[in-house]
Amino acid sequence: MSRFWSQVVRDLTPYVPGEQPKIANLIKLNTNEHPFPPSPAVVAAIQAELGDDGARLRLYPDPNADLLKNAVARRYAVTAAEVFVGNGSDEVLAHVFMALLKHDAPILFPDITYSFYPVYCGLYGVDSITIPLAADFSIDPADYCGQPGKNGKIGGIIFPNPNAPTGRLMALDAVEQIVRANPDCVVVVDEAYVDFGGDTAIPLTQKYDNLLVIHTLSKSRSLAGLRVGYAVGHPALIEALERVKNSFNSYPLDRLAIVGAVAAIEDETHFQTCCQAVIATRTQLSADLAALGFEVLPSAANFIFARHPQRDAAELARALRERSIIVRHFKLPRIDQFLRITIGSDADCQALTDGLRDIL
Ligand code: PMP
């Protein structure tokens, strides 16, 4: 271990992302990317920005990414002052942990959830209380209403909706119940997967100044490689995020990301068509896995969380890997017998079910 490390670094347990293999001919169903390419308008916008000689790359991008904030504002009928943008929603989340979650009271999140939350707690010195999911792996809103933290204070609440890696959706009125019950702290709803079957809570930001909704372009807009995410909430929350951003990296989004993201947000037809296709494939894959004996949790996301009552999940993941198919397996209590399978193209999902039939 390096003698130059600080204690903070020594104590960190960093997030381990899903494998991003270098081999092209693998069927990659492990990190919830979209099977379809982004809108053709994205490619055209990036090519136009590059021009023939890339001369514009000499120049810094707009530090406020106003074009993008305006596109998000138009899409969700809010104002640009209610929008914060960042280099992927992971970066937006980092700003949230720095700026909006109180550092003198524990925050609440589910015990089975996006594994970056505990990592950011470690990095930014935020204390946390984890709340177990219900027996059916759903989040019970009552667990987040009126439960005091240490000394009766709560520093904030964060959860994905749909939750990850379970895919389970919380109804919008339950989200509202949590927001209403916690007026003195920020409630962050991470809607990375909402476009595959949920309703966004963004309209509720017009009614509650303690609600922040986070979106990513990595999933439903097919742009994981471009790294764009945003948050929508009351201008006072956005101002706090901007203050942290301007103390950290004034230019988080590059020129290509800004124009590409705008084009993706503006192509509603491509977005709707591709999301509907993923939803149809999810229905088919859920039925196919059930027919193979899997217990499949209801999913509102672009992945399925499933277990086979007789077969070890790690073994299944290994056997699939030998057939060039990668799925995600988490070695965590309560979910170590589940596989998380991204909804790929119809052909990818067919290859997965054929592979499983062979293994079982
Ligand atoms: N939130 C959740 C719940 C996620 O699963 C992910 C993707 N791993 C993210 C946020 C981050 O996505 P990105 O940084 O690509 O926007």
Automatic annotation (TrEMBL):
Pathway info: Amino-acid biosynthesis; L-histidine biosynthesis; L-histidine from 5-phospho-alpha-D-ribose 1-diphosphate: step 7/9
Taxonomy, superkingdom: Bacteria
Keywords: Amino-acid biosynthesis, Aminotransferase, Histidine biosynthesis, Pyridoxal phosphate, Transferase
Species, as recorded: Azonexus hydrophilus
Documented EC number(s): 2.6.1.9
Name of the protein this chain belongs to: Histidinol-phosphate aminotransferase
Assembly with partners or alone: Homodimer.
One of the GO biological process terms: L-histidine biosynthetic process
Family annotation (InterPro entries): Aminotrans_II_pyridoxalP_BS, Aminotransferase_I/II_large, HisP_aminotrans, HistidinolP_aminotransfase, PyrdxlP-dep_Trfase, PyrdxlP-dep_Trfase_major, PyrdxlP-dep_Trfase_small
One GO molecular-function entry: histidinol-phosphate transaminase activity
Residue numbers carrying N6-(pyridoxal phosphate)lysine: 219
Reaction it catalyzes: L-histidinol phosphate + 2-oxoglutarate = 3-(imidazol-4-yl)-2-oxopropyl phosphate + L-glutamate
Ranges in coiled-coil conformation: none
Similarity section: Belongs to the class-II pyridoxal-phosphate-dependent aminotransferase family. Histidinol-phosphate aminotransferase subfamily.
